[in-house]
Specification:
Number of strands: 7
Strand content: 5-15%
Radius of gyration: 18 Å
Helix content: 40-55%
Strand order of the largest sheet: 3-2-1-4-5-6-7
Distance between the termini: 44 Å
Mean pLDDT: 95
Oligomer: single chain
Number of domains: 1
Number of helices: 9
CATH topology: Rossmann fold
Low-confidence stretches: none
Bound molecules: NADP nicotinamide-adenine-dinucleotide phosphate
CATH class: Alpha Beta
Order of helices and strands: EHEHEHEHEHEHHEHH
CATH superfamily: NAD(P)-binding Rossmann-like Domain
């Protein structure tokens, strides 16, 4: 699919990968962007950058873990700005720790944002896309949604779940003209990654590379978009020698805290 002239709603658009996707969509000639995150100030900074490209930008500062806020925002978006053609579910949080040191509030936050938050907005948007018989939903998982590693158990669990959610929805919504795809970035240099202890040997991507990979994947109608050669190598290695890949992941992981 091409994005020229379309309307996209992007969650997690105030920083990192979501911000880079918003800027890349604008560069590619999207007509209108609805940007979602909690921080209005950061969203406004992104909007100022985007307006240079002539794209209309509307901001929704809301917390995706609050279903009422999300419900009101999606209804207002459709009423005031017409149909959304592309939903990018990019908002997410990650907490790193050894499993034995892990804390329930962190796990609850990961599940509330990465899974329930994604579920809430996707259901509201998908219902409307089905009525218009058109739409594309992009769920941002991670390479850690394919390959789990020490210190990231609960985050990985949410990212594996997103791939299952995506695959099931793809089958269910295809007959309604709605395609559902997954984006699987590897380590990317953002605020999220800066708060983690990095895995050895992994070269971080830049958010702009992830955004360009998404646009390329959308043009090719890919159902799962990997980013960078390291991801292809890791998935290939896992396919042909899973025990070896598991060993490599254990060696690469930071020592559990
Ligand atoms: N960075 C990586 O290495 C990496 C690798 C693979 C996959 N990913 C995935 O890529 C996505 C983006 O990650 P990132 O690295 O760009 O992270 P980031 O820089 O920390 O940005 C996270 C974004 O999510 C928003 N957000 C968080 N909680 C929210 C909530 N409750 N309601 C609304 N918005 C919320 C944040 O905005 P506010 O704080 O303003 O709300 C921010 O815009 C995530 O799903 C992450 O799991 C990241």
């Amino acid at each position: 699919m091409h994005i020229q002239g379309k309307t996209a709603l992007i969650t997690g658009a105030s920083r990192g990968i979501g911000r880079a996707i918003a800027l890349e969509f604008a560069r590619q000639g999207i007509q209108r962007l609805l940007l979602v995150a909690r921080s209005h100030q950061r969203l406004a900074e992104v909007a100022a950058e985007i307006e240079e490209f002539g794209t209309e930008v509307i901001l929704f500062s809301l917390d995706l873990t609050q279903p009422v806020e999300v419900n009101i925002a999606v209804a207002r978006a459709w009423r005031d700005y017409g149909p959304v053609h592309i939903l990018v579910n990019c908002a997410g949080v990650a907490h790193q720790s050894s499993f034995l040191q892990s804390r329930l509030p962190h796990v609850q936050e990961e599940i509330a944002t990465n899974l329930i938050g994604m579920y809430t907005i996707t259901r509201l948007v998908a219902r409307r896309m089905v009525v218009q018989q058109e739409g594309t939903i992009v769920n941002v998982s991670s390479l850690m949604g394919r390959l789990a590693a020490p210190t990231m158990a609960t985050y990985s669990a949410t990212k594996f779940a997103i791939l299952g959610f995506t695959q099931a929805l793809r089958g269910e919504l295809a007959s309604h003209g709605v395609q559902v795809i997954a984006l699987l970035p590897s380590l990317t240099d953002t605020d999220m990654a800066r708060n983690l202890e990095w895995f050895r040997w992994i070269i971080p991507m830049m958010p702009e590379q992830v955004a360009k990979a998404l646009v390329k994947g959308l043009k090719r109608n890919s159902t799962e978009i990997l980013v960078g050669w390291q991801s292809y190598l890791a998935i290939w290695c896992d396919r042909i020698a899973p025990p070896l890949m598991e060993k490599i992941l254990c060696l690469a992981a930071p020592l559990p805290r």
